[in-house]
Amino acid sequence: MSENFHIAEYNSLKAEILLKMKQIDDSFRFMLIAVAASMSWTLSNYRNFSDGVYVLLFFIPLFISISFTIYVVRLNKSMLWRTDYIREVERRYADEGAGWENSPLHKAMVKKRTSFATALSLIIAVDLITAAFAAYMTFENTSAFQAVQGLVHI
Known about the structure:
The protein is mostly helical. It has helices at 3-45, 51-57, 60-93, 104-111, 115-140, 143-152.
């Protein structure tokens, strides 16, 4: 294949990576808004549902959170495939140390905690908070809570 093909592919993939980085950032914002809204709605309305149904409502924020987590992880994997290709193109056509992926600054950043790892930590924290919310609300609003409460008061 010609050098022009690889350069065009390089530019296209670089643009896709930047787009995916923006999508990850936007997804995290949407996730926070969706989880907060669903938790608020659940807290405001769960008493309007029958006993069996309202327990399911407590898990809606967790479902939303985990769905966003899976989406963001898939975006990141897609980005990694593209960066591998870009590294290969840079290795073949760029001067030593030149290029987007091969720059000394980028290599130094890779050795440290990446922005995706930080974002993933925040996303997992939201997952854990929604799981704790679902567990607490289920425990608090079912007979399990009353059974434990009866044992404590004995």
